[in-house]
Every structure is written in C-alpha cells, then in structure tokens.
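User: For a reading group we're discussing how well predicted structures match intuition. Take VOC family protein. Before you show the prediction, I'll give you the sequence so everyone sees exactly what went in.
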Amino acid sequence: MTDARGSDGRIGETNARRAPGTPCWVSLMVHGPAATHDFYGALFGWEFRPGPQQLGPYARALLDGREVAGIGQLPPDRQLPTAWTPYFASDDVNRTAETVRLCGGTVGVGPLDAGEAGRMALGSDPAGAVFGVWQAAAHLGTAVTGRPGTPAWNELLTYEAAGVAKFYETVFGFELLPDPSADRDYVTLRIEGRPVAGIHGVGDDLPRDRGPHWTTYFEVADTDESAARLVDLGGHVLAPAHDTPHGRVATVADPEGARFTLLHAQR
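Assistant: Thanks. Here is the predicted 3D structure of VOC family protein, as structure tokens, for the group to look at:
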C-alpha cells in the first residue's frame, strides 16, 4: 500500500462528491446479515440502518451517525463467496459499464438505480476481480475517514499488475505509478496526483480459493488488540500483525470468510 490516510487523502468528514475513479464506498454481501452486523458492530463500533433494497436486504453501517460501509444479504439459493467490494465513483455509470465491457471486463449486475441514493453497477476486471461503480445522487459514499472503524485503503491482489492496471486506467482514468523496485510488482493508482488505491501482482502466491480480488484496509486504534478481539468474535487471523512502512497491519477474515486488513496507520 502507499497511502494510509484514506482514499480521498483527508482525515475527517468527506461530504463532497468524489472525482471519477475515486474509491467512494465499500460493500459486503453475506449469507447471515444479522450475525455479521453483530460481528462488525463489536469490532468497529458500527451501528446499522436500512439502505436501498434493490439487490435484496441491505443496511448501511454508521460510525457516530456517519455512513462508512454497507452490508447486504446474498440470495439464499446461491452459495457465493463473501468479499468486501470497493466502489469507484463515476459521473455516468452506463458509460463506465460500457467501457468495462469494451476493455475485456464483465458487467454482472446493472447498471441500475438504487432508489434515490444513486446508480450502480457491479463488474469484474479481465482477471476476474470484482468491483463496483457508483454514480452518486443522494448518497455520496463513505462520509468519514481517518478514524478507527473507517475504510483506509483498497488494494487489488492479482497475478500481474501492469496489464490489469491498464484496464483500470482506461475505465476510470487513473494515473499509474509503478513501483521502481525490481523485486516488487506494484502499481499505485492516482487521481489528480493523489494515491487512491493499489494493485499488487503476487503471481502464484495468490490464494487458490480466492483468485484475484480487492482487499479493503480498515483503520483501527491498535492492530494487535483488534486482531485479538476479532478472534474472540469468531473471526480468523490469516497473516499476523506486523509492521510496514505505512503502519501495523494484520490480514484477517470475518466468520463468513470475507477477508480484510486491519491497519493502524502511521501519521
């Protein structure tokens, strides 16, 4: 990862409409939303209120009354993997969806209206990683960043970074900044010069049960303490807490198997 201060580069409330391509929301679809609400409520201090129901039961997670993420319910007859999915801002989701198709990606859901909140689509890149597209109306996205319990960064784990990065560059207009290190396959995605997300090529180290996928980093006050609490709540630690140049991180999974990363960022 490159920037631990959130996808919009600021700490605090983020009420403004995002520039196209900026990560603006994260959403999780699960089989048991009530238990999932209990888990993330205890872990991050989230409370929940109903959100748009176009794709089935859905709730927005709130931190001190500010929207930070969404959790919906998967259709009971479909045994799909659970995963946190980032949404990227768009001024025209129909045009973005068409560009996804033209560039070798797939649009699996939408574009469709989510009530008065906005318009959305779900797609996947040519390597198969799923992401969302959000055209804001009443709902602008995550309303607060830089605090424990808020999304801090989104990173794509894939086989090889450069080719997939070109896809995202064309679809969303990202500026690409490859890592100069010869031993690290990493591209930072930037909007207007600001780092907003990253692509990490890991080759054969990619988990076989998951394939290419986006990972969301959530800010915490203490990575080790949060990881221990997560285990007590029924989650799993996949990679123990360790220090990085950007903060202390631990890769974890919730009780349904959705992977994410705990981050105590260096300021």
